Amino acid sequence: MSHTTTEDRMLQLSSVGQHYGDHQVLHDITLTVPAGQLLCVVGPSGCGKSTLLRTIAGLLPVGEGTITIDGTPVTGVPDQLAVVFQDYGRSLFPWLTVRDNVALPLRRRGLGRTERRAEADRILDRVGLSGAARRHPWQLSGGMQQRVAIARALVCRPTLLLMDEPFGSLDAQTREDLEDLLLEVHRTEGTTIVFVTHDIDESVYVGDRVVVLSPGPGSKIVLDLSVRLPGERDQIVSRGLPEFVALRAEVGRAVRGQAM
Amino acid sequence: MSAAADARTSRTTIAAHYALLRWTVLVLAVGVWELAARAHGSVYFPPPGRIARHMHELWFSGPARHAFLTSAAVDDILPSLGRMTAGFALAAVAGIVLGIAVGRSRRAYALCNPVLQFARAVPPPALVPVFVVVFAFGTPMQIASIAFSAVWPVLINTAAGARNTDPLRLDVAAVLRLNTAERLWFLVLPSALPRIFAGLRLSLSLSLILMVFSELLPGTANGIGFTLTDAQTRSDLLTVWAALVLLGVLGYLLNTGLLAVEKRLIGRGKAI
What we know:
- The complex is a heterodimer.
- Chain A is built from nine helices and ten strands.
- By secondary structure, chain A is of the alpha/beta class.
- Chain A folds into two domains: 173 residues, Rossmann fold (3-Layer(aba) Sandwich), CATH 3.40.50; 64 residues, no CATH class.
- In chain A, helix 4 crosses helix 5 and helix 7 packs across helix 9.
- In chain B, helix 8 runs parallel beside helix 9 and helix 9 runs antiparallel to helix 10.
- Chain B folds into two domains: 40 residues; 211 residues, MetI-like (MetI-like fold), CATH 1.10.3720.10.
C-alpha cells in the first residue's frame, strides 16, 4: 500500500468515527481505496455498514476523523458520486417514467431535454432495459427496478459509486444476474465502487477486496483481504474454485468474530 | 394474457353493475319524491318534475348561440361560479404554496400548527361579518370570504403531506444533487399530492357553502344565493327549490371534475 500515489487514492478514510449520542457506531476506521477498485464491506447486521456509507456519501456529517474523495475533504454530498440504495421501491420516483427517473440527475449538467432523454436511453440499453423506458417503476419487477436505480446512478458517469446492500431483497437468480451486470460495468467503466453487503459469498464473488467490520457498538475493521481469483468471474465456475472456498471461509470466520 | 383480459372484463362488468345500481336508487328516490309530493299537493313541496320544468324555463331555455342559457342564468349562475372559482383558486394556490413552505420546515410547522388548527376550528361563515367590515359589501368581500375559509384545509393537508416526504427519497434527492426547485417539483409536491387533493375536496365544498352564504347578505344584486333570498321574500317556493337543486347539481359536478383531475394526476404515480 505504501507505494500508492495520491492520484491512486480515490477514497481515503482516516480514523473515522461516528456516534449517535452516546452510542458509538463506528470506531477508528482507516481505509484507502485506490481508483478503480471494487471494495466490499461486510459485517453482521447492525454493525454500522450503512452508517459508514451514508457518511462517505455526505448524508451524515463526519463525526471524527476525515474522509477525502479524490483529495477533497467530504463536507456535503460530493460531486461525481452516486449511490444505489437497497430499497429500490422507495428510492425511485413512482410518478416519473423509467426514462425520466434516469434522466433526472442530468438536469444539473445543463443538457437539453432531447439530449437528456437520449443519454437516459443509452444507459437504459446498457443495463438491458431499453424496452421499459416509457413505463413506470411500479410496473416493473424488483430486479428491473434495481436496474433502473443502477442506470440512474451511472448516467452521470460517477467516479465513485456507493452501493448499500443493493441486491439484498432480490431472489437468487436475479441477484446473480445483477452481480454480473455490476462486474461488467466495473470492468468497462473502471468506476471505483464501495459495495456494502451482509452476504459473505456475494462479497467474495463481486469484490477485488473485502473489508470486514466487527459487530457494533464501535465497529472497526477486523479483516482486510485481497480477492485474487483465477480467470474471469463466473457464477458457476468461480464459486467452485478452492481459492473462493478458502476466502469465503476466512471472511466467514471474521464476520462471526472467530480467531483464525 | 387472457387471464388479464378476463380480469379486466370482470372489473368492467362489476363497474357497470354498480353504475346501474346507483342510477336505479337515484331514479327510485326521485320517483318516490314525485309521487309523495303529488299526493300531498302542498305548495311548499313541489314535485321534482315541476322543479325541473321551472329550472328549464328559468335558466336553460335560452337561444342556442348562448348555449341555451337564458339571461337569468347568465345573471345568476355565472357571477356565482365566477366568485367561487376566484375564491377557490386563490385558496388552492395560497394553500399549496404556504403548505409546502410550512411542511418543509420543521420549525415553521411546529410554530404554525397550533395557529392553523385554531383557524380551521373557527366556523367559516362566522368570519364573513369581519370581511364585510373590511371590504364592505360586494364581490371582493365575497371572494375574500370564500378564499379565507377554503384556504385552511388545503394548507393543513399540504403541510402534512410535504412533511411526510419519504426520508430515503430526500436522501436520493440530496445524492442526485437536485436544487431546491427541482426537489420541490419532482419530489415534495408529488409526494404531497394525495393529501393536497384531500384538502382541495374539502375546500371545494366549503367554497360552495361560502359562495351561497356570502350572496345571502345584503348588498348583493345577483348570484344563486341572491336568487334564493329574493325568491323567498316573494314566496316563490318553486324558484327556491330550483336554486337548491341547481346548487346540489353544481356541487356534484364540481366534485366529479376535481376527482377526474385527481385521478389523472395521481394515477400515474400509483404506489406512493
